[in-house]
């Protein structure tokens, strides 16, 4: 695995492809802990050492799972987790919480669940619009000073919020959704990140799996959140329109001798050396398939062909049914 560097003022070296662990515990169908642990172990063996979790996944159980999986191998891992989406143990929603006291409390709880003495990259999962970002990041800065956290990040933050946060303490990375299906941040956010020397960590770089070509109406199980209305792109006529776009990606993938998912990931990887996608999976075979994207070479003409096949304004439906927690 080649490495890439997130951030300049507070730099973190990571492999060019990370692993999103959320689906191992929640949201995308049934979970199998043994299979998930095997997937994490295989990832580490293959050099995919940048692992991403959050306290709200499960809730809480995903951090515990990741902690068990990396026990004895902590020194190999660049460990990222998040706070801010506050949930009760029964999974019910509380609020987005960016208060300084909650920052400290959430970090200590994550450290305990993960079984580690520090977090390599600690993100505010969503921006609390009731708390000035300077106060939240000020509390996060104290975690760095205490040695509990090495680097700071934000998630789904607007350009102005990123700028204000970076003035308090260097921000290493912004984690936001970015793929052939989601390119909004190219207008203001990505230029701001590059001006400030902040890396981009795209989550859902495969459009929540639709860009793999494996999603159909029939494939979405009843316990899969994509079928429950939370993600409008997977419902009704929107799904039909979006699957038609995926058919174009499949056509181009055949020409490249790779899978649609590998081609879509290769497009994300080609957006810059400061971009490190974290495709999520809970199975070894999909992990290995995703890694194949690093071998797909795309010319400028190839990139343009992909962007012509999936125009920015052609994707139907919002990313979330409730977009209020995402800063525009």
Automatic annotation (TrEMBL):
Pfam families given in the database record: Aldo_ket_red (PF00248)
UniProt xrefs under Gene3D superfamilies: NADP-dependent oxidoreductase domain
Swiss-Prot/TrEMBL keywords: Oxidoreductase
Domain NADP-dependent oxidoreductase: 16-309
Top-level taxon: Bacteria
GO cellular component, as recorded: cytoplasm
Entry's transmembrane regions: none
GO molecular function, one term: oxidoreductase activity
Name of the featured protein: Aldo/keto reductase
């Amino acid at each position: 695995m080649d490495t890439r560097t997130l951030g300049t003022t507070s730099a973190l070296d990571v492999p060019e492809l990370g692993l999103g662990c959320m689906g191992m515990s929640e949201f995308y169908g049934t979970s199998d802990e043994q299979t998930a642990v095997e997937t994490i172990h295989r990832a580490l063996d293959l050099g995919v050492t940048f692992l991403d979790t959050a306290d709200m996944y499960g809730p809480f159980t995903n951090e515990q799972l990741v902690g068990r999986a990396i026990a004895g191998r902590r020194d190999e891992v660049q460990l990222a987790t998040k706070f801010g989406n506050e949930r009760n143990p029964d999974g019910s929603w509380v609020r987005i919480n960016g208060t300084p006291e909650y920052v400290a409390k959430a970090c200590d709880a994550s450290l305990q669940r993960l079984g580690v003495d520090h977090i390599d990259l600690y993100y505010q999962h969503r921006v609390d619009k009731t708390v000035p970002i300077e106060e939240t990041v000020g509390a996060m800065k104290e975690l760095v000073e205490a040695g509990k956290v090495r680097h700071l990040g934000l998630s789904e933050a607007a350009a102005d919020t990123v700028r204000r946060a970076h003035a308090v303490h260097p921000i290493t990375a912004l984690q936001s959704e970015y793929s052939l299906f989601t390119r909004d941040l190219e207008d203001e956010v990505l230029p701001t990140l590059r001006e400030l020397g902040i890396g981009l960590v795209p989550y859902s770089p495969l459009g929540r799996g639709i860009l793999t070509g494996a999603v159909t109406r029939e494939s979405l199980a009843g316990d899969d959140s994509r079928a429950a209305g939370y993600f409008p792109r997977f419902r009704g006529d929107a799904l039909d329109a979006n699957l038609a776009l995926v058919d174009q990606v499949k056509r181009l993938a055949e020409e490249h001798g790779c899978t649609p998912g590998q081609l879509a990931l290769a497009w994300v990887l080609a957006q810059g050396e400061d971009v490190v996608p974290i495709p999520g999976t809970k199975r070894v075979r999909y992990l290995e398939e995703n890694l194949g994207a690093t071998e797909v070479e795309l010319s400028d003409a190839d990139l343009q062909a992909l962007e012509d096949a999936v125009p920015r304004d052609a994707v139907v439906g919002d990313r979330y049914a409730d977009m209020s927690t995402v800063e525009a």
